[in-house]
Amino acid sequence: MFADVIIDQDAKALDKVFAYLIPEGFDVKVGMRVIVPFGARYLQGFVVGIKDKCDYDEAKIKSISSVVEDFSAIKPEMIELMKFMARKNHLNLASILRLFLPTEMREGKVKEIFKSFYKLNKDVQIILSKSAKKQQDIIDYLKKVEKEESSILAEKFGYSALKSLYEKDYLIKEYQKHSRRPDIDFGETNSVILNKMQENAIEKIKENKTYLLHGVTGSGKTEVYMRLISRVLKEGKCAIMLVPEISLTPQIFNHFKSRFGEQVAILHSGLSAGERFDEWKRLFSGEARIAVGARSAIFAPLENLGVIIIDEEHEQSYISESNPRFSTHDVAKFRAEFNSCPLVLGSATPSVESYEKAKNEEYKLVEMPTRANGKDLPSIQIIDMVSEIRRGNSGIFSNQLIADLANVINNKKQAMLFINRRGYSSFMRCRECGYIAKCTDCDVSLVYHREDNRLKCHYCGKQFHVLDMCPKCGSENIKQGAVGTEKVVSELQKIFPDVKILRMDNDTTGTKNAHQKILNEFKNSLPAILVGTQMIAKGHDFENVVLVGIVDADQSLFHADYRSTERTFQLITQVSGRAGRGGSEGKVVLQTYAPRHYVYKFVSNYDYKGFFRKEENIRQTAEFPPFSRIIRVLFSNQSENKALNELKVCYNEIVKIKERFGDEVIYLDAMKSPIKKIQDKFRYQILLRVKLDHADEIESEVFEKVNSLVKGNVFIEINPQNLS
Ligand code: ADP
Ligand code: ZN
Ligand code: ZN
Predict the structure, then answer these.
(1) Which of 35, 218, 593, 707 could form an SS bridge with 371, CB 3.0 to 4.6 Å?
(2) Are residues 172 and 297 in the same domain?
(3) Residue 21 pLDDT more than 80?
(4) Which residue CA neighbors atom 1 of ligand 1 most closely?
(5) Nearest Cα to 300, choosing from 311, 287, 289, 316?
(6) How far apart are CA 671 and CA 465, in angstroms?
């Protein structure tokens, strides 16, 4: 017999299937890890197929040296998934397989932790010949102790006796189930009575389809998820539940733990490698049947899935932007299809892409339009910061926000102040009239680049002089730069010196459990103000928060990104959802320099559909995704010349592709990347925007060409989240 083996190395030349002979007496199965001779070395590989014939000269073929562990670490579904991802995302096979295993397994620690045991198989009659003395000793021993570790049995009675008993089916093998469990405090989950909206959603979601669950913040989607999972468990099946970010996960975990106990395994990057591995093992062995976690939990080693849920489906973190690049939605769709189970995408603000699919009936739309507790969504008041300046207040906070904060403090309640900041870059804005510098060709905001003191368009590369006067109103008060959390906290402390003010951002959450500590402290302080970035936007359910302030809503709006309006709508809806979740009514104060921008009208009315229609229209007219596809080929190299040469070679070939496809290519150009240098590597890029009809073909051709012309140092991205 022969095995198809993928070598666990990244080299392009090794990115294929190699055939090896399975030596006599080796028990090799698909999905096992093996050691094989390769050139002068021995390398680890994955068995992805077994066959009885081989195309190579059988005399020359080499043999598998040993197996890494005696079970299939990669399950059959995952081998199919690997093939799908390689096709869809043009990825290296070994790099995909690695996604399926926890890092600990890759460090060879698996044997020591995955202890195996033997016990007697009570279903067969054991008949041994008189000469099989050692085998009889094992049987007698196991009759007394019930089960024993394999290594101890082998030591006492010899490995060959053990092996022949196992091969005769007289013994059953089991794996040890002791685990390090991550710390979680068990909260109580009241068993709620479902409302009509929730019942309807649960009733609808049962076929092998993709469902878009559009439910406003507080509509009780979590309860729907949990009921769907209960149903699936009762049918003897498993479930995957994905959440976007770790700062949000503690609460979700508590909910799930108190409902499902040991059935739940947690997989996210905040766990230690050991904890992760133990959770993975519990899923692998079938001891846990629900995987809850961030993006990577989509690869949970569960079989027989009954439902896959992606909560906050619009979140960027579901796209892996570094290698291996993939979209969680694609992987989830594949697994749902493979297991014939429903895929649920839940959100209060679905991505334009997903909602477009629901509109075209590719997804089934399920709606939950009101809050579960019957409360209204908080009112959103829009504050025009330009007129605030005209009235002589040039500070960070409007008079309204200060008055509302004072009110919260007097009533011993809580407020959250949200700093809408993303990335490093910044736009130029007139502080007098709100004018924003935009690209004349692309209608996206220009980005200020400090290094060469210029404004640049991230879509077409066009450059502009920095403005020292506003072209609209003539004011010289035109600036770039945003206020950070630190500044907001210090200004706030000046106004409210005796009030507890907490800060949550990348700087304050570096250590393990830091998120939880800050959130706990906030929870237990009355009154208190929590100042934070995106991190405070999601998921938190604090009953005393009655006010949410959005300090500068435009910060995500004028990013040089076709999705920036969508992101702004999502962020504002999300943060607003933090207010008024308990008994008292909530309010949102939204500060902006562009109060007439359409996004603010829709968001303050919670009009997702209106927003979607407007946004859809704009994207369609401008030919941006989902009505086109953007392909970026990024060259990064320590040698600027090399990067530039590779760019030229590839560009010349891509121009030929464009010529063949004519109008299908909307835009093609080569340029320096917006950020010229990262980690001492120069960056150049080719940008393509193509129509959808032939997008797959063009994409494949670009991948093939680029990969054949350039080795390493090149990344191809589809609809990148970030063009810097
Ligand atoms: P979402 O995830 O849709 O934003 P949540 O799942 O956080 O909403 O639910 C919001 C609140 O409503 C939670 O406190 C939850 O316990 C409560 N809730 C959910 N379902 C019901 C129900 N049927 N009756 C009463 N309260 C409910
Ligand atoms: Zn102006
Ligand atoms: Zn442009």
Answers:
(1) 218
(2) no
(3) yes
(4) 218
(5) 289
(6) 18
- Residue with the bigger pLDDT between 344 and 13: it is 344
∠ Cα 453 457 458 (to 5°): 110
Tokens representing 244?
């976007």
Closest residue CA from atom 15 of ligand 1: 220
Binned at pLDDT 50, 70 and 90, residue 616 comes out as: very high
Task: Find the 218 Cα to ligand 1 centroid distance in Å.
Answer: 5
- Closest ligand 1 atom number to CA of residue 577: 4
Q: Which of 199, 209, 202 is nearest to 341 (CA)?
A: 209
Residue identifier of the C-alpha nearest atom 16 of ligand 1: 220
In sequence order, the β-bridge partners of residue 5 are: 18, 47
Pocket around ligand 1: residues whose beta carbon is below 6 Å from it? 192-195, 198, 215, 217-223, 372-373, 541
Tens digit of each residue's pLDDT (9 = 90 or more) over 575-596: 998 888 777 789 999 999 899 9
In a domain, 473, yes or no: yes
**Residues near ion ligand 3 (Cβ under 5 Å):** 439, 441-442, 457, 459-460, 462
- Ranked by mean pLDDT, the top range of 10-24, 243-257, 265-279, 399-413 is 399-413
Tell me, yes or no, whether 506 and 606 share the same domain.
Answer: yes
Confidence of residue 481 (pLDDT cuts 50, 70, 90): low
Domain coverage including residue 454: 425-482
Give the per-residue pLDDT at 246. 60
Last residue of a domain, one of 87, 106, 125: 106
In-domain check, residue 723: no
Same domain, 498 and 470: no
Split into its structural domains, the chain has a count of: 6
| 77, part of any domain | yes
What is the band of 629 on the pLDDT scale with cuts at 50, 70, 90?
very high
pLDDT at 114 over 80: no
Say how many Å lie between the CA of residue 303 and the centre of ligand 1: 30
Which of 592, 619, 646 is a domain's end point? 619
In this structure, what token pair is assigned to residue 627?
């009505």
CA of 444 to the centre of ligand 3 (A): 7
Contact 555, 359 (CB under 8 A): no
Give me the CATH number covering residue 585: 3.40.50.300
Beta strand segments in 312-403, E: 319-320, 326-327, 343-347, 364-368, 379-384
368 Cα nearest atom in ligand 1: 3
What's the pLDDT tens digit per position in 417-457? Answer: 998 765 444 778 888 888 888 888 777 788 887 777 888 88
Taking the centre of ligand 1 as the mean of its atom positions, its distance from the CA of residue 371, in whole angstroms, is 7
Distance 382 CA to ligand 2 centre (A): 20
Q: Which ligand is nearest to the CA of 444?
A: 3
Distance 316 CA to ligand 3 centre (A): 23
